[in-house]
Specification:
By secondary structure, the chain is mainly β. It folds into five domains: 11-226, Sandwich (Jelly Rolls), CATH 2.60.120.200; 231-400, Jelly Rolls, CATH 2.60.120; 412-492, Immunoglobulins (Immunoglobulin-like, Sandwich); 500-594, Immunoglobulin-like, CATH 2.60.40.1220; 597-629, no CATH class. It has four helices and 45 strands. A hairpin with a 7-residue loop joins strand 21 (311-316) and strand 22.
């Protein structure tokens, strides 16, 4: 593509132009829109004039330095004239920059400006918010709350370039800040509520405040930071009421030809919770909320959905929407966060792996009256997060899903690991791409079999096998691939002997003995290593497949009697096996009852036999609902 260059010729010399040059200028007038790109801009950035200033502006980027030239009368009142280099920006986030210099192209007022801006569109009267450094009037946080409406501002006087400026968007709230060092930020005035689209323009704005001049400004340290975690919402209006109170009004293209690819852009947004606004005042609409949920721990999770009117909640077995299945739904309507009106609002317990991304989608349609939509879940430890949130205290995450492929990126990954032999651990990567990605773990540069998840587990690490290994994960999609930083394993010799933890009888002829770690089979099943102080004989010893507990067969025990077991000679599975401490001893009272903890409570239960019964001390959140503890 040839880069156009624009020239201004005095009227009295235009007759000297050749026909070819006139044709070129005509083409520029048709297709250039007053735009001048002097150097390649970063991917996604576009430069252009807003409001047709008399002198066209330009933007260039070289080694971190932005040079932006803008003409025009001002960014103010009901209509703007300036140069704007910008990119599309979705949802919450911020844009910041250091304005290193600008020209005073209107010395009589000192109101030439350079700064950062969020803008609804490129029309001259668009809703916008900006933080700008002026030539002689300090730093301005300014905004226009309605298309074609008047502008307002708050000012911090006495600030001149170089100065840092920052604009933050959170929902409908926009806040302006400045800094003299790029670290300590001072807010300018109060946050302003502006009804901008979900997708806006974010960029650098420069005006000369003089339609006969060009203000050249320099920017460095330009950062555009989108919201990383959240829930992606799309909305469709004017649904066909003849479909009745069913989701067909939203998802059946006979009733809604705009499903699923043409939602109303003005309503597209990111939520920080898996919950839509309540009672938005629109009838006959539908919406879809999508995210990748990243569980903090492995275990069973239960989901609920609440809505007005009907809704359905889907979960995939992985991060691919193709594999989604319905897990809960609302057939009629609920008040906000009413989780128990219909049994089908609650899912069955679903086993999820910590660190994996699972596609989660909720759809809902509204007829008339009130409206709401929310999703909650219960973690394996019984904690309920209501509603699900983008970043929870339990370290769960919600990554927005918009289905658009971009170059894969890695938000977080495992670092180098140092562990003892016999330890188990999980390697992981977290991508915040807003569409599914593929994973392939590698060992020393070679692809591993059955290693296509964001997590890779290593169990019972071996000094001989695992020490010095280097792992990496390749994350890919149709756009490209990225490889994680190498993860090196350092496995050291285990010098810690096994420890005797507890014992309990299982009936009258078996005793279950628990140890702190995996045991060597030969020594753990040698009956000579187990002696009861009262002489009760041990006739057999069998190790469980878990490797850290043994069942002894004994002569009949007496309920209510106390027993003391002495253990010697039991070794672990280290490369150089460690032997249990000499005469390790554990006691227990023989009981007709056996303790068994359900749902992994934080403290183990204890049984104490009494003369007239039994005392049970137990932890856990409840016996009830979808899961017990």
């Amino acid at each position: 593509m040839t880069t156009p260059v624009y020239c201004n010729f005095p009227l009295h010399r235009r007759w000297l132009l050749s026909f070819k040059l006139l044709a070129l200028i005509a083409l520029i007038a048709l297709f250039g829109s007053g735009r001048q790109a002097l150097a390649a801009l970063p991917s996604g950035w576009v430069d252009g004039d807003v409001g047709s200033p008399s002198i066209g502006g330009s933007a260039s980027f070289t080694n971190g330095l932005w040079t932006v030239s803008g003409g025009g009368s001002d960014i103010w009142n009901a209509s703007d004239q300036f140069n704007f280099v910008s990119l599309s920006f979705f949802g919450d986030g911020s844009i910041a920059a250091k304005v290193t210099s600008l020209q005073n192209t209107d010395p009589s007022t000192g109101w030439s400006k350079a700064g950062v801006m969020f803008r609804n569109d490129n029309s001259a009267g668009a809703i916008n918010a900006a933080v700008v450094v002026s030539a002689a009037n300090g730093v301005n946080f300014q905004w226009r709350s309605a298309a074609g409406g008047q502008s307002s501002s708050a000012n911090a006087s006495g600030i001149v370039a170089p100065a840092w400026v920052k604009l933050v968007r959170s929902g409908t709230n926009f806040s302006g800040f400045y800094s003299v060092d790029g670290t300590n930020w001072i807010q300018i005035g109060m946050a302003q509520s502006l009804s901008m689209n979900g997708v806006v323009l974010a960029g650098l704005a420069v005006t000369a405040h003089n339609n006969s001049a060009l203000n050249t400004a320099a920017f460095t340290n330009v950062t555009v930071l989108p919201q990383i975690f959240g829930v992606y919402r799309e909305l469709w209006t004017n649904l066909n009421s003849s479909a009745g109170n069913t989701l067909a009004a939203l998802t059946n293209t006979t009733y809604n030809p705009n499903w699923p690819n043409s939602p109303v852009a003005a309503f597209t947004k990111l939520y920080t919770n898996f919950e839509a606004n309540v009672d938005i005042g629109i009838n006959y609409y539908g919406q879809r909320l999508r995210a990748f949920v990243v569980p903090p721990t492995a275990g069973n999770y239960t989901f609920w959905i609440s809505s007005d009117d009907t809704s359905e909640l889907f979960l995939s077995s992985d991060e691919n929407p193709v594999n989604k299945i319905p897990i809960a739904w609302v057939n009629t309507w609920d008040t906000s966060r009413q989780w128990d009106k219909e049994l089908n609002q609650q899912s069955a317990p679903i086993a999820l792996q910590a660190g994996c991304r699972y596609y989660l989608e909720a759809i809902m349609q509204q007829g008339t009256g009130g409206d709401n939509l929310a999703v909650r879940w219960q973690l394996p430890n019984g904690t309920i997060e209501e509603p699900m949130t983008a970043i929870s205290p339990a370290s769960s995450r919600l990554v927005p899903c918009n289905g658009i492929n971009t170059l894969p990126g890695i938000y977080a990954q495992s670092t180098n690991i140092t562990a003892f032999e016999g330890d188990s651990f999980v390697l992981s990567v977290l991508s915040t791409n807003e569409a599914p990605v593929a994973y392939q773990w590698q060992l020393n540069g070679t692809n591993l079999m059955n290693a296509a998840q964001p997590v890779y587990a290593i169990s019972n690490a071996s000094l001989a096998v695992n020490n010095g290994q280097i792992y990496a994960c390749v994350i890919s999609n149709s756009i490209g691939a990225v490889t994680s930083a190498p993860i090196s394993l350092t496995i050291t010799r285990d010098t810690n002997p096994p420890v005797l933890l507890s014992a309990q009888n299982l009936g009258i002829t078996n005793v279950q003995v628990f140890f702190s770690k995996l045991l060597e089979t030969a020594s753990a099943t040698n009956i000579a290593n187990y002696v009861f102080t009262n002489g009760t004989p041990v006739t057999a010893a069998a190790m469980d497949v878990s490797g850290n507990w043994v069942v002894l067969t004994t002569s009949p025990l007496t309920y209510g009697s106390n027993y003391s077991l002495v253990v010697n000679g039991v070794r672990d599975r280290a490369s150089q096996p460690n032997t249990i401490a000499t005469n390790s001893t554990v006691g227990f009272t023989a009981s007709p009852f056996t303790t068994q903890d359900i749902g992994s409570p934080p403290t183990s239960s204890v049984i104490t036999l009494l003369s007239n019964g039994v005392q049970v001390a137990a932890d856990g959140y409840d016996v009830g609902g979808a899961a017990d503890q």
